[in-house]
Every structure is written in structure tokens, then in C-alpha cells.
Amino acid sequence: MNDTEKKEKLELLLRDEQHLSVKDAEVAVQIAENLEDSDFRSWYLSRLAKKIATTKRWDIALKLAKSATGFYDRADALITIAERIAKEQEKQTTVELLNEIITSVNEITSDEVWPWQKAEIFNRAAKLFLQIGDLDSALETWGKAVEIAQVAQNYDIDSSTVLVEIAKELFAAGQLEFAKRVAESIQSVGKREYALKQIT
Questions:
Q1: What CA–CA distances, in Å, run from 172 to 12, 165, 167?
Q2: Within 13 Å of residue 136, how many CA atoms lie on the same side as its CB?
Q3: Per residue in 123-156, pLDDT tens?
Q4: Are 69 and 42 in contact (CB under 8 A)?
Q5: Residue 142's pLDDT is what?
Q6: Which positions ≥6 away from 187 have C-beta within 8 Å?
């Protein structure tokens, strides 16, 4: 099979309504790992990791997620798996995975990824910390997300979008003053006005 045929096969296996059996998963992983295009290989491994996580096969899902070479593919898959694990009330496992994700994001240099990608992962991690009852870690992680996104606003418009989302999450968490400070720091007039309307 060439890459086009491989991707068509993977799309069939990754359909939302498609149940991914152990055998199908093995086939899909083999196809994805043999894609010649490294960007597509990373993306499909990330998607497979998230799909397999829906069946609670954490070890396999985590292994696949970590094999994705693209920063956002890998981080998105790992945080999605953490969200799944948290739903199963596995607090300790969730905390360990969140700490691993945060460490890996901190180690990425700014020229390797877009700032909004780092800020978004931190925002999702903060939401999970809050979900499992760790407000201090949530606020610390939101602080990191805000710092990254605020600095990058003038050249990375998506960072402003992430700030809007963070302000809304902080408001929902009862952190009204923090939410207001974040909303007011948004440089885009339209996004700033939208954010302020969402938190008042």
C-alpha cells in the first residue's frame, strides 16, 4: 500500500462509530507506523492513542501517544488520555501523567512549537487538576498558560484565543479576579470584549 491507501484504511478504522477491537488496533498501529510521511505518521499515532484510550487500554494508548513525534500530536494525545483516566476516578495515575505532561511541555523550546499549543495544553492540564480537587496545582498551571499566551499575543493570534478560554475556565472555577485580569490582558479588542462579556 502507498501512503494514500494506508490513510484511507486508517480513516475507516478511526471512524467515530467504529469499535476498535484489539486485532483492528494492532492492524491500525502497524499501518500508521509504516506511513512514509513523518507528519502524518505522528498524527495518526496520536489519533490511534486517543481512540484506544476510549477502551481503557491505558498502557497501549500511552505507548502510542509517546511515539508521536510531533509535539502537539503527542501532548494532545497524552492530555486526552489523562482526561479519560480522570473520568475513571484514578486520581493518582492522573496526577502522575499530568506532571509528566507538564515537565515535557516545559522542556520544549519556544522555537519548536507555537506558544498557543503549549498554553492550550497547560489550560487543559489545569482543568484536570481542578477536576481532581487540586486547586493549587490548577492555579499554578493556569499561571504558566497565561504567561506563555500573553507574551506571544503580538505574533501568535491563537494565543489570544487561548486566553479567552482560560478566562472562561477561571470564571467557572470561581476565580473571578484572576479571570478578569486575564480577559483585560487580551490585546485583540474583539476577543477582549468577548471574554469580558463571558465573565460578567
A1: 38, 11, 9
A2: 0
A3: 999 999 999 999 999 999 999 999 999 999 988 8
A4: yes
A5: 98
A6: 153, 154, 160
Task: Give CA–CA dist 58/78, Å, rounded.
Answer: 10
What b-and-e string marks burial along 87-106, b requiring 16 or more CB atoms within 10 Å of the CB? eeebeeebbebbeebbeebe
**Burial of 30: CB neighbours in 10 Å, binned 0-12, 13-18, 19+:** exposed
For residue 45, is pLDDT > 90? yes
Average pLDDT, the chain: 93
For 115-143, b where at least 16 C-beta lie within 10 A, e where not — what string?
Answer: bbbbbbbbbbbbbbbbebebeebbbebbe
The grid cell for 187 is 490585546
pLDDT tens readout for residues 62-98: 999 999 999 999 999 999 999 999 999 889 999 999 9
Q: Measured between alpha carbons, how far is 2 from 83 in angstroms, rounded to an integer? A: 34
* CA nearest to 33, candidates 56, 50, 10, 55: 10
Q: Quick one: pLDDT at residue 9? A: 87
How far is Cα 114 from Cα 160, in angstroms, rounded to an integer?
A: 12
